[in-house]
Design brief:
seven-stranded mixed β-sheet, elongated, Gln-tRNA-synth, protein biosynthesis, aa-tRNA-synth_I_CS, Rbsml_bL25/Gln-tRNA_synth_N, aminoacyl-trna synthetase
Length: 664
């Protein structure tokens, strides 16, 4: 909530300045205006959160308006999906509106502009128009139809509306300035002929308004006070205002367009067109495939509204585009599910264990804690018997001293059950271990280092587990001019596993989320049936990609006769932090990025001693905060020591340090 923040973002500052300068709080109104030409994705969550978040704080209405001006790409399916997504995120809109509601009013205003000599019908080819429009460094030139008479323009425009012409024969352009330095102001198109069925207006119209003409006028009709857009619309602001100049009544609210940086995510495609290609080419199973960055895909994968809202809140509102590491999104869902997801046991790669001294016909139902993070979660019963499954990777015949799982002559604790000792193995004809024979000890007070999850074979339920990985193997798959983004598809992004789960899951419902102990977080997929549960892996317990990525600042190893001591990452970070707060903003960004990269090489044991850095060394404490933020994203738990350091930073006089602490 805004009242809890010590500093406002720049959009909030704009609104506060407007209120201070006389705008009534009652005049505040916002909108979220998606085009219904695809499903919403994680980038839209930021835009949704900004507008609806402001609405919640100021108790101001927020409209959900569909900018449906292109019937060639828009469908009712997308309208329904968008409404479901916004509702699922927990937001409520005031009015559900469509730009198509205003087609007649927009047409009437266009006619008035023609009468005022501010719009004309152009009959050039698109190639000729592009040539006469000039370039960013060369002014445009007036076209041959620019000075048509008002009467001729009115006649042509009415006949365009009546369907007398084919697509591409004529367009309506605003008459502004063909030499304007902003190319968007060089007589922009207002209407084009499209003889296509519209999902709401049917075949009533065969001319459709362009987005730039529709956007601001729709805001004005709805009396939107602050029209918030992503950064790519900043060059359009001048045109937005020019179009408003033609219609506004000074007694009414004039919308103000302001822009924020859109959300870009590593290893992720945000283009609706490219996401549609993934669907059409059947690379994924649909818009809601759990590998897709769509809200419906994230929902199906097991993400929660709270995690997505927390993610965009952590990212914040910026004026410059940047790329957010997808690991932050994964951290947010881990943190949320850690508090709420019940713990259960499942085995994905089973190895049979026979407990030879446990009676053949005996079975017990043992108490198992549902969630140690939630005192109210209570306990459940799990069955135990002579034969159980454990994960194959949890057993080795021979292992080193740092292997804390089961090995021959070694002991481990079975979660919620007994301590077992491995005595022998049974192998198949190829020498593969197919059984481990153990004995159990009822004395559970003994100290052993390893704890394993397991399921009773007799009681286990079969389940299909869909283990998802990132869809792309490159951090920026659509950033290459000479390569297609499809070249970076991860061929192993989906792995289907036949698993065994404990019987308490028999009543699991579609959408239910669980932590499979020691494995990760999973949820029940919509493909589940009464006789076959299907689980999607939401996220692992730790960031498995951090180990795979090449370490930053990795240098070729010098030959033995030229060995040079390499400075520890933590030492470099301390050095970078010393002057951090005195650097200009642009330099700070570069140093911050360098610290964040180096942070992955730092162990927590190296970091904690720096929590007690003297107050006057604010740059060092800033660097430590940046490293801590990275470690928390990687799964470091928030201990009392960590929380104490963050709290001290929140109370500091340095605004930069306070801001970073607030973002954690």
């Amino acid at each position: 909530m805004l009242e809890e923040r010590k500093s406002l973002n720049f959009i909030e500052q704009i609104i506060e300045e407007d209120l201070a300068n006389g705008m009534s709080k009652a005049d505040l109104r916002f909108r979220f205006p998606p085009e219904p030409n695809g499903y919403l994705h994680i980038g839209h969550v930021k835009a949704i959160g900004i507008s609806f978040g402001l609405g919640e704080y100021y108790n101001a209405p927020v409209n959900l308006r569909f900018d449906d001006t292109n019937p060639a790409k828009e469908e009712q399916e997308y309208v329904d999906a968008i409404k479901e997504d916004v509702s699922w995120l927990g937001y409520k809109w005031d009015k559900e509106l469509f730009s198509s509601d205003y087609f007649q009013q927009l047409y009437d205003w266009a006619v008035e502009m023609i009468k005022d000599g501010k719009a004309y019908v152009d009959s050039q080819t698109s190639e000729a128009m592009a040539e006469q429009k000039g370039t960013p460094t060369q002014p445009g030139v007036d076209g041959p139809y620019r000075n048509r008479s008002v009467e001729e323009n009115l006649d042509l425009f009415e006949r365009m509306k009546g369907g007398a012409f084919e697509e591409g024969e004529h367009i309506l352009r605003a008459k502004i300035d063909m030499q304007h330095p902003n190319m968007l102001m060089r007589d922009p198109i207002m209407y084009r002929i499209l003889k296509k069925h519209h999902h709401r207006t049917g075949n009533n119209w065969c001319i459709y308004p362009m987005y730039d003409w529709t956007h601001g006028e729709s805001d004005y009709i709805e009396q939107i006070s602050h029209s918030l857009c992503s950064l790519e619309f900043k060059p359009h602001r001048e045109l937005y205002d020019w179009f408003l100049d033609q219609v506004v009544d000074p007694k009414l609210i004039r919308p103000k367009q302001r822009e924020f940086a859109r959300l870009n995510l590593s290893y992720t495609i945000m283009s609706k067109r490219k996401l549609l290609q993934l669907v059409n080419d059947k690379v994924v199973a649909g818009w809601d495939d759990p590998r897709m960055p769509t809200i419906s895909g994230l929902r199906r994968r097991g993400y929660t509204p709270n995690a997505l809202r927390k993610f965009v809140e952590t990212v914040g509102v910026a004026k410059r585009d940047n790329v957010i590491d997808v690991s932050l999104l994964e951290f947010c869902i881990r943190e949320d599910l850690n508090k709420t997801a019940p713990r259960v046991m499942a085995v994905l790669d089973p190895l049979k264990v026979v407990i030879t001294n446990y009676p053949v016909d005996k079975e017990e139902w043992l108490d198992a804690e549902n969630n140690q993070e939630d005192e109210s979660a209570g306990y459940r019963k799990v069955p135990f018997s002579r034969e159980i499954y454990i994960e194959k990777e949890d057993f080795k015949e021979v292992a080193g001293s740092k292997f804390f799982r089961l090995k021959l002559d070694g002991e481990v604790r079975l979660k919620n059950a007994y301590i077992i000792k491995a005595n022998s193995v049974v192998k198949d004809a190829k020498g593969h271990i197919i059984e481990v024979h153990c004995t159990y000890d009822e004395d559970t007070s003994k100290k052993v280092k390893g704890t394993l999850h397991w399921v009773s074979i007799k009681h286990a339920m079969n389940a299909e587990v869909r283990e998802y990985d990132r869809l792309f193997m490159d951090e920026a798959p659509d950033s290459y001019e000479d390569k297609d983004f499809m070249e970076f598809i991860n061929p192993n992004s989906l792995k289907i596993i036949e698993a065994y789960v404990e019987p308490s899951l028999i009543d699991a419902k579609i959408g239910d989320r669980f932590q499979f102990q020691r494995l990760g977080y999973f949820n029940v997929d919509k493909d589940s049936k009464a006789d076959k549960l299907v689980f999607n892996k939401t996220v692992g317990l730790r960031d498995s990609w951090a180990k795979q990525k090449p370490q930053p600042h990795e240098q070729p190893k010098p030959s033995n006769n030229q060995q040079q001591p390499q400075r520890k990452a933590i030492d470099v970070i301390q050095q970078l932090g010393k002057k951090y707060t005195n650097l200009p903003a642009e330099k700070q960004l570069k140093v911050k990025a360098e610290i964040q990269k180096l942070a992955k090489e730092v162990r927590y044991e190296e970091l904690e001693p720096l929590f007690n850095t003297a107050a006057k060394k604010v740059g060092t404490r800033m660097a430590v905060m940046l490293v801590l933020k990275q470690k928390l994203m990687e799964g470091l738990p928030k201990t009392d020591v960590v929380n104490e350091f963050i709290q001290k930073a929140l109370e500091d006089e340095n605004e930069l340090l306070v801001s970073e602490a607030q973002s954690i």
